[in-house]
C-alpha cells in the first residue's frame, strides 16, 4: 500500500504481494504469453526459468508496466495495476527493474545514476540526495568514492550493483531482476548474488528474477516457475522442481546444478 505521502505501509499484510492472473500478450500474430498465472508472497523470491524465447522477459515487462497485457490482470499489494479496467504506468508502480546490462546512463556519474532513481529524480544533487546515494552505495557494498566515476570506469559487477542501488532508490515493494548477473564471471556472479540476496532479504522486498543459472534458481529462490512456450509448466519449491521436474527439459536444465 502506498499512501499519498509516498510512504509504504508495511503493516498491511498484502504489501509486496504480486498476483498475476491469466495474463496474455501477443506481438503481431505471435502469442508470447498464453495465460500466465503466478502468485508471489510478500518478501519471497521467485526464479523464472525456461528456454530462450519462452516469454520470461515479456512477463517481467508486463509486471513492471512497460507493456500492457491483452487480457488478464496484474495486482500489486492487493491493488490492480493492469487489467480489470486498471492501468498504472511503470513510473507509478512501486517496482524496481534491473535489466541484463544494467542499462546505466553512460553520460551520468554513478552517483547521478543512483540519484535518478530517487523519488522526484534529484539528479542535480542536494545534501539529502547525496546522503541517500551514499547510503544506497553502502547497501550494495560499494565504496562512496565510486560515486564520481562514470559507469565505464567501474567493473561489470560494480555496474550491476549500481543498477540495483538505482532500483532500490525508489524504495520498491517488488524487485524484478532480468538475467541481471548472467554477464558476470562465475566468482563475481556468486558474490553479487549474495549481496543482492542479503540486501533484498534485509529490506523484505519481494523479488522475481529471470535466470539461466540453475544454481541461482535453486539456491536464491523460495519458488521456481518453469516457463514453456508462453505458459508456466510448473510452479513449485526448488526441491520439488529438482526432484519432480515437470518434463525432461526441466530435468536437464536443473541436472547439472549440483
Ligand atoms: P525470453 O525472455 O524467454 O527469452 P522474451 O519474452 O524475450 O523471451 O521473448 C518471447 C518472444 O516474444 C520472442 O519471440 C520475442 O522475439 C518476442 N518479442 C518480445 N518482445 C517483443 C516486441 N516488443 N515486439 C515483437 N516481438 C517481441
UniProtKB/TrEMBL annotation:
Which keywords appear in this protein's UniProt record, sorted alphabetically?
Answer: ATP-binding, Cell inner membrane, Cell membrane, Ion transport, Iron, Iron transport, Membrane, Nucleotide-binding, Translocase, Transport
Part of the intact protein present: 1 to 258 of 375
Which GO molecular function entries does the Swiss-Prot or TrEMBL record give? ATP binding
Q: Which residues form a coiled coil?
A: none
Per the UniProt record, the source organism is Terrabacter aeriphilus
ABC transporter domain boundaries: 18-254
Protein name from the UniProt record: ABC transporter ATP-binding protein
Amino acid at each position: 500500500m502506498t499512501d499519498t505521502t509516498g510512504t509504504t505501509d508495511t503493516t498491511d499484510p498484502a504489501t509486496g504481494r504480486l498476483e498475476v492472473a491469466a495474463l496474455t500478450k501477443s506481438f503481431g500474430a505471435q502469442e508470447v504469453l498464453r495465460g500466465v498465472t503466478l502468485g508471489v508472497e510478500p518478501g519471497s523470491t521467485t526464479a523464472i526459468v525456461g528456454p530462450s524465447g519462452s516469454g520470461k522477459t515479456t512477463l517481467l515487462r508486463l509486471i513492471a508496466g512497460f507493456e500492457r497485457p491483452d487480457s488478464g490482470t496484474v495486482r500489486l499489494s492487493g491493488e490492480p495495476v493492469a487489467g480489470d479496467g486498471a492501468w498504472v504506468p511503470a513510473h507509478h508502480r512501486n517496482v524496481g527493474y534491473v535489466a541484463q546490462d544494467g542499462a546505466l546512463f553512460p553520460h551520468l556519474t554513478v552517483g547521478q545514476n543512483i540519484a535518478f532513481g530517487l523519488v522526484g529524480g534529484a539528479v542535480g544533487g542536494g545534501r539529502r540526495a547525496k546522503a541517500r546515494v551514499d547510503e544506497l552505495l553502502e547497501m550494495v557494498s560499494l565504496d562512496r568514492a565510486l560515486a564520481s566515476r562514470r559507469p565505464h570506469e567501474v567493473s561489470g559487477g560494480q555496474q550491476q550493483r549500481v543498477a540495483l542501488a538505482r532500483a532500490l532508490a525508489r524504495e520498491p515493494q517488488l524487485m524484478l531482476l532480468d538475467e541481471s548477473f548472467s554477464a558476470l564471471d562465475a566468482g563475481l556472479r556468486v558474490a553479487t548474488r549474495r549481496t543482492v540476496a542479503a540486501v533484498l532479504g534485509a529490506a523484505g522486498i519481494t523479488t522475481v528474477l529471470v535466470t539461466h543459472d540453475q544454481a541461482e534458481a535453486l539456491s536464491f529462490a523460495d519458488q521456481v516457475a518453469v516457463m514453456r512456450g508462453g505458459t508456466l509448466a510448473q510452479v513449485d519449491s526448488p526441491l520439488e522442481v529438482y526432484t519432480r521436474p515437470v518434463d525432461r527439459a526441466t530435468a536437464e536444465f536443473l541436472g547439472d546444478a549440483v
